[in-house]
Batch of 3 targets.
Target 1
Amino acid sequence: MDILTDKNVLLGITGSIAAYKAADIVSRLKKEGCNVKVIMTKSSELFITETTLEALSNNKVLSEDTSNSTKSNFAHLDLAKWADIILIAPCTANFMNKLGNGHGDGLLSTICLAFTKTIFIAPAMNPDMWNNKVTQASIDKLNAAEIKIIGPNYGSHACGDIGYGRMSNPEKIIERIKEKSKITNLSGCRILITAGPTREPIDPVRFLSNYSSGKMGFAMAVAAKSMGASVELISGPVAIESVKDVKTSYIETSSEMLNAVMSRVQDFDIFISTAAIADYKPINYSTSKHKKNENNINIEFTRGTDILKTVSEKYKNIFTVGFAAETDSLQKNTIEKLHKKNLDMIVGNIANHELGLGFESDYNKVTIFSHNGTKEIDEDKKTNIALNIVDFIAEEYSRKIKIVKSDAK
Ligand SMILES: Cc1cc2nc3c(=O)[nH]c(=O)nc-3n(C[C@H](O)[C@H](O)[C@H](O)COP(=O)(O)O)c2cc1C
């Protein structure tokens, strides 16, 4: 049993020279245990025969002329309900632009409009068609509609041009669909995330804090939500718009963070601590402002509670994920924290303002460490990094619960 077993896949084929590769895609989907139905656009009929696809899919091929394909007046709705996954491969420039603009002028495009799950497309076109400003603008729209674009690759084309536009190979397409399908593992999963800095007041006008912007934590909340989890966020003071459908509470000090986490965490399956919580807090808060005429002031600090360690020790059933910003020896320091704090996973990054990564930046470069392995994620937007991390969490979390279940037998 694998992730695609028994999935209903609707394969849309459009009028590209790469359409012949669709036969390989159907065979591979069948090998994965999928039920496959093929829909061909009129143009695609010039490039591959219905007979081949019918034989491989073991299903009647549907064409744009619905009256030939199905008896139902609501074929577009029936098929949209039947499918678990829609894959359009190859996807022409014409079809990408249609999809990006929400057109429904044929069976395939209308099904896509009525479909509520994930659509994957594997574009195939000449490099100039790919680089065309309208096509590029459609890519932004497709991304915004959460349509997953696989490829295209760089290389030489049938027309002799060289550049981006070659369809990803069928093996890679299936691999990507499997990768993306795994993330539904988080549906029904409850995740508590902390984000941002804390502030430790010294006197009524001053506090000790750090450079954390909260961007990584909020990106993690968006990613976990988009992967089906039910998410709650506890954040320090940040200047970020709240995440839709994610209940967010705001705290200021490390003690308030401790109280907020400990009063909520028992209701969650996964706890992700991205917040940069002050390690030390002032012993004596001065109720009046420290005066400027003092040359030196001595403020004594004491160690605060390690919230993540407290959670991992008290709630062994909760999957705990830490974040560590290090200035040096990333691997050594991060792995040490993984063990010392009894975590399931830790995400390490080098904190360096000159690199423009990490604190305050929209970008980061991280390495994930777990008890089963390591994964490096190259420099990217925090929103993309968050998707990768949550994907990794989903995999590790499902492995952990499988082990717990088999131990209980
Ligand atoms: C020989 C030939 C090869 C073509 N290859 C492609 C291609 O690879 N990608 C593409 O976007 N359009 C390609 N086209 C143009 C499309 O077939 C055309 O835009 C068509 O209207 C697409 O219709 P559809 O998107 O409904 O399938 C090709 C046309 C011809 C004649």
Target 2
Amino acid sequence: MEKRENIFLKKSFVAITGASRGFGRCMALKFAVKFPPNSVLVLMARNEEALECIRTELQATAPNITVLVRQYDQGKSDEGYFNGIFDSLLTESKCSKDDFEQVMLVHNCATTGDKDKTAIQLCDTDRVRSYYNMNLCGMILLNTSFFATFCDPSPSRVVVNVTSGGSQRPIPSLHLYCAGKAARDMFFRVLCAEEPSIRVLTYSPGGVDTDMFRDIETNSSSSSLRKVTNGMREDGKLLTPEESVADLEQVLEENAFDNAEFVDYFLRKFKPYADKYKQ
Ligand SMILES: NC(=O)c1ccc[n+]([C@@H]2O[C@H](COP(=O)([O-])OP(=O)(O)OC[C@H]3O[C@@H](n4cnc5c(N)ncnc54)[C@H](OP(=O)(O)O)[C@@H]3O)[C@@H](O)[C@H]2O)c1
């Protein structure tokens, strides 16, 4: 396989969605100190106040990079809502795309949907549609907006598609979520088939102690899922965002992943043990 350079070594324009809390917030705090000076980091989510707090924190820890805040709602379906977002961010940063060696979009934001219902109880048209507006359509339209701005193969282009084990196997009560993640993963496999110059990491962070995980632990209609998630917490198997982000950083540093193939925290950590038992 072609040897590729550590992704963090290039002066970059990086946008992270869902950066206001949880895994995305942690990624923003950790990534900011890894990219070279004069890189630009864009924090995106609905909660502008939370994003501004992170920007303030980063001004102390990463003074050599520019941090921008972009409030948006990925669930919006108004025509043209996503157009020009990255053009205006470039203008705001007083940079042109040629100022960067690399551009990167991290699709991190997600919701889990109506987990108090089973798949055959999903009857609310607006709720089902709005779930996919945010988790699938909005993600695709934001992605299109990004590549409309960064349309040339240079600077090099990277996408991190934050996925879940639920894209690979069914999780009771997370019907909308699993189907949405599977659709996103396949979307990026097609994108890579069409645009081989774009590097895509599809990364599943494992069970991470965030609002999303706590919500599933409490509110899933599946007693088996509540039991599994509560058990992970009790057994100390739940990861901190820092632990999972550290693994993601290693994957990006090594830059040896197959384009748009599923890379999973747990498989990476525990595969050597699984292989040992097979011998
Ligand atoms: N936690 C886990 O165990 C786990 C496991 C596997 C995969 N993942 C994946 O990891 C990623 C991060 O999850 P997390 O646990 O950090 O979730 P989280 O704590 O619930 O955070 C979700 C993020 O998404 C943003 N968001 C929600 N709705 C939005 C909207 N309409 N428009 C724009 N932003 C929106 C939220 O910000 P605002 O509310 O400010 O908009 C927040 O920053 C997700 O893709 C998730 O599927 C998580």
Target 3
Amino acid sequence: MPDRLDLGPHPHLGYTASALDRAANRRDERAKLAKLAESSNAGCYVMGGELVVLRNVGDALDPLFAAADARALGAVRDEVFLGLMRQAPRFGVGLDPASIESLKARNDLKITDLRTIAVQGLVDAGHLPPLAEAKALLGWHARHRFCPNCGAPTLAVQGGWRRDCPNCKAEHFPRTDPVVIMLAITGDRCVLGRSPRFAATMWSCLAGFAEPGETIEEAVRREVLEETGIACGRVSYFASQPWPFPSSLMIGCHAEALSEKIVIDRSEIEDARWFDREELALMLARRHPDGLTTPPPVAIAHHIIRSFVEDGGNVVL
Ligand SMILES: [Zn+2]
């Protein structure tokens, strides 16, 4: 193999490696949870819709508020217990959208979305997993206020980890939607695609939701075939990543491409083509002569591509 660019140490994958103890055994202690929220070492992440509220603290931004301060920011729609960070209780507080909008005028706060926080490194990286947990869970509450079984309003219980229907007695749990994200590989080449939503120079892995009744491997093969016309054989798991936009679990894979001709489904993607490992290395290092890039390290696609560049991916062909 020719000499390839040294890409340096592996960067951290965003929203992963949470230091939080979810302390699920504490969720049914309603009175104790309320008391925990008032303790001096408790902290609340505050958000609404896509936006997160951060405090300006000197040159830094702090995402944690005392419970009383969090509640004073606006109309609270939901409160959830996230767990214990080295014994310090952590909660998520969901404000209604109008309250969030009104906070944008305040100089002591910064209101921005979680993608921007992660990509720009606006807060200590240790806050990203609990922020992702809070966003996915609070987003679920915001969209599941009525029983899908009978239509009656539901009530949050278990520290926000379940909603119960008082009418038909159904219990509803927060959902996580599996998304397969993959690199189809043959020899020294792999396929990347472009969505119309991407920045003009960015190429990434193909991806799509796993469907009911489908294995991860079947979803990988179906999505690659639908989007590019390429048939895939063996599929190997790489790593996963919570992706709280709104509540996905990205399941990263490498796949063995069995054909090479690309037939693009323009209703799904804008473009797709083959890339060799040399070109991908330049893209990862942001040194491509035409300015082409991969997604940043906060996204699992970056790591799936890098794994292929450095060791051929873990699809052993
Ligand atoms: Zn019901």
